[in-house]
Amino acid sequence: MGETMEKLIEADGEALRAAVNDYSIAELADGWYRLNQEQSMAVFLALDQTSRAELITELSSTDQQILVAALSVQATRDLLEVMDPDDLVDLIQSVSPEVRSEVLGHLSDETRKETEFLLRFDDDDAAGLMTTRYAAIRADITAGAALSFLRKAPEELETIYYVYVVDSLQRLIGVVTLRKLLISSDNRKIADIMERNLVSVREDTDQEETARVLDNHELIALPVVDHWNRLLGIVTFDDVIDVIREEQSEDIYRMGAIAGDDENYLGSSVFKLIWRRLPWLVLLLLAGTITTNVLAGYESLITRFAFLALFIPVITQTGGNSGTQSSTLMIRGLATGQLRFNLIGKALAKELTTGMVIGIATGAVIFLRSILLPPGIDIIEAAAVSASLMAVVVFATLMGCLMPFVVDRFGGDPALASGPLMSTLIDVAGLTVYFEVSKILLF
User: Buried-most residue among 246, 320, 327, 370 (CB within 10 A)?
Assistant: First the structure.
C-alpha cells in the first residue's frame, strides 16, 4: 500500500485526484506513515473536503498538526467547517496550543460557538465524546409532524434513528425510534408512542462507563444529560469504538510498563520511544534490586543449603506467572463490570481455593522433578522446595487478585497491577516466602 501511494504522488492535477479517490479512507490512513511531508500534503489536497475531514480524524496528532499548519487560511477554514463537532473538538484537543489558537481563529461564529461549548467538558467524560447534532422534538406534536421535521432536518445530524423528546426546558423525557414513527398513524401524538424509560448518562460519566452502558443496552446512540436532566448531546457507537480501542491500547501499554498514549509506532521519534519506556524500566530496576537485599538477608541459609539457590528462578517464574494470571482475570472482570470492590471477598475466596489446588499440583511436579532429574536432591530438600513453591503460588495468586481491586478503589487503572510491576513485587515477596518456609522445614 505504501509503495502504491508513493507512485500516486508522481501524478498531478486531475490524474492524482482520480487515482487517490480510488482508495478508501482506511487504506489511506494505514499507509500514511510511509509518505514524507511533501507526499502526504499532495495526497491530502487531492481529496475532496468531505474526504479530507474523514481522513484527518484518523491520523495521529503529529500528522494532524503538520497538515493544519501547512494548509492555507481558506483551506483550513473550509476543512474545519465540514468536520463533525466532536471530531473537530478532538482535533483541537490533540494539537499544540499554537495550532489550537490558529484553528479556533479560522472557525465561523456558529461553528466556534458549538466548538467552545463542547470544549467546556473533560475529554475523558461522556460529554467529551458527544455531538450536539441530534434530532429532538416535543411530546405534543404528531408522528406525521415529526416525520415532516426529519425530512427537513439538516444532513449534518449524526443519526435520525433515535429522535429524542424534550420539554420546554430542554429536559429529556423520552425517545422514539424512526421505525416507531413510520409504523404509527400520522395523527398519533408523540407522547403516546414514545419510550419514557430510556437509558442516558450524565455529562461527567467516565468514557469507559459510557461505552459499557451503550454496549450493555445494545444502542446506536446514547443521550448525555446534565444535573437537571437537560439534553446536551448524544454519544454514538462509532465514538465508543474509538474509546474501547484507546482504552485497550492504554491497558496493554500499562501492562507492559510503557507510558504514553496510542500513537503510530513508526511515526514516533526515537526520543519519544525512550521517554515512554525508560522511566518505567528504571523504576522496575530499582524495585528489582530489592531482591538482592532479600538474598543478602538469607545469605547464611543459602550458604548452608546451596540447593535453594538452584530453584530461585523456578520459584520467581512460577509465582510471577500465577500472580499475573490472577490479576489478568480481575482486571478483565473490573473492566467489563462483572467485578466490583464489594465483591472482593468472593473473589479472594475463589482465588484462595484455586491457588491452593494449583499450588499442590505445581508443588507435586517440582517434588518429582527434583528427585528424579538432576541435580537430584534428597527427599527432605525436595519437600522443602515443593512446600515453598505451594506457599508462593498461593501468596502470588492472592496478591494478583487483591492488587487490581486496591488500585481501582483508589481511582487508578487496574491494568497497572499486572505485567512487569506485578512480577517484580511478587519476586520480592515470593523469595521471602520461599526462604522463610524452607527455613522452617529444614531446621
Answer: 327
For the chain, percent of residues with pLDDT exceeding 70 = 90
Q: Where are the beta strands (DSSP E) in 124-227?
A: 136-137, 162-166, 172-177, 201-202, 221-225
DSSP state of 443: -
Among 132, 400, 435, 181, which Cα is nearest to 312's? Answer: 435
* CA atoms of 295 and 293, how far apart (whole Å): 5
Of 334, 294, 338, give the one whose Cα is nearest residue 438: 294
User: Which tens digit of pLDDT belongs to each residue from 295-344?
Assistant: 999 999 999 999 999 999 999 999 988 998 998 899 888 877 789 899 99
* Helix or strand run (H / E) with residue 345: helix 344-372
Question: Kind and range of the H or E element at 333?
Answer: helix 312-336
Q: For residue 177, what are the β-bridge partners?
A: 162
pLDDT (average), residues 103-129: 83
Domains observed in the chain: 2-121 (1.25.60.10), 136-236 (3.10.580.10), 289-442 (1.10.357.20)
CA distance between the termini of the chain: 68
The DSSP annotation for 244-275 comes to: HHHHHHHHHHHHTT--S----TTTS-HHHHHH
Q: With 90 as the cut, is the pLDDT of residue 254 above it?
A: no
pLDDT score of 20 more than 90: no
Q: What pTM does this model have?
A: 0.66
